[in-house]
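Reviewer comment 2.1 asked that we show a complete input and output for one of the modelled complexes. We chose the pyridoxal-5'-phosphate case, as it is the one discussed in the main text.
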Amino acid sequence: MAAEHPRFDPDSFRRQAHRVVDWMADYLIGVGERPVQPHAPPGAILAQIPDAPPEMPESFERIMADFARIIVPGLTHWGHPGFFAYFPANSSPPSVLAEMLTATIGSQCMAWSTSPAATELEQATMEWLRQMIGLPNGFTGVIQDTASTATLVALITARDAKTRGRGGDGKTEGRKDGMGEEANGLPVERLCVYTSEEANSSVPKGARLAGFRPDRVRLIPTHEDCSMRIDALEAAIARDRTEHLTPACVVATVGTTSTTAIDAVPAINTICRREGAWLHVDAAWAGSAAVLPEMRWIFDGVAEADSVVLNPHKWLLVNFDCSAYFVRDPDALLRSFSASAEYLTTAEGSRVPNFRDWGIQLGRRFRALKLWFVIRTYGVEGLRAMLREHLRLAALFAGWVDAHPDFERLAPAPLGLVCFRQIAVRGKPPGGTLDSLNERLLSRLHATGRIMLTQTRVKGRFALRLALGHLTTTEAHVREAWELITRTATELGA
Ligand SMILES: *Cc1c(COP(=O)(O)O)cnc(C)c1O
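Response of the prediction step:
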């Protein structure tokens, strides 16, 4: 049997699209009634999907039915009001609608000429975002898929600033100050990267991928508040200098994933300028908070950095994926990432930005559209109101933890995350260790299907993390979560 050649049928598309939108609205209304994460054992979903692809066309009705029957129950619902795990990965109606338009248009945004409006809207929205977070206007933004990619891009640029030989285009790599005779033509084996032991896993991974020797990636110890110890950074650099190694890059974190610790960027910047090292700031999660004037302090010193990344897909209501990468010197990026080929040649040439030359991928999605929809729909003041509410809820929850005799907080909570643990059961010390008590608490909480938290270790101690930041999270949800946590905690045997 032969199947028909696929063709566009506007009537069925319209009908199916309306059905999908109805499903989407119903999902968003009812997501809180579902278990926040599935309980199916590994392989249970795979087992329901045929081993081989269908030879013949299947109806939209069948596909949608299987989506609802097999796929949806197997999902973790990141937009569930009881989802407090990892970090927020957001979604919002204007962002969803823009994604539908993006998919419909199917733009490929590798170069200006392949979708001029996409490139120019990316320039405009990155400029808006730069103003929103208070970066000085020397910074230029480009959208990357994820913070991991942006950090890899920063590390590659930092590497090239040190390894590229003299001659070339004669431009100074990175910033002139501090870049001494050694600034060029070094073998990568001699270069070191510094970040804190609390840095996101994407930093050491990125350093490895950028070709730095794994044993030259220094994970600097942290203070009690989990921020990088500047004395330890100084000591590591001094040790490396005596071995004739060269600091190429320091990655500072504003808001670590584990506890939202904030490194002392001004002090790190002073060291980077003196050493001629690239300063990249990973503000993937917390960076959005800088949209609030009263939280700008988290970006102290960031104005002096070489590059910074934040994820609107985490805490700014934009659907995954959308990472904003800001650089002081786009030419340094272009020197590392320009690609040319006859089939890429366009009449405009380098008179326009071709964003394929600003990162790793050639093909690029049209990500600026959803950012534009979101910023316009809510306005900067609307986004500020949301961020303020999340900060208020986090402070409220932290206060409940602090006031409860059976619980303690394990880290400062300046942003949307509270790290805490149970320390007693109805006022009595627990039978086993606190770590095992809290592991049991977490697994009991997850068994309810009503909330999801994740765990971390804070200075070696097992901690529960409650991360806030979804569009739909309200005080009532946070209160319910706390009631469930305290009630479950009393049921654990003392
Ligand atoms: C989430 C996070 C990342 C990774 O972000 P992706 O966009 O998923 O790559 C990096 N750094 C920090 C501090 C994060 O919180």
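Residues 167-181 have pLDDT under 50 and may be disordered. We note this here for comparison with the apo prediction described in Section 3.2.
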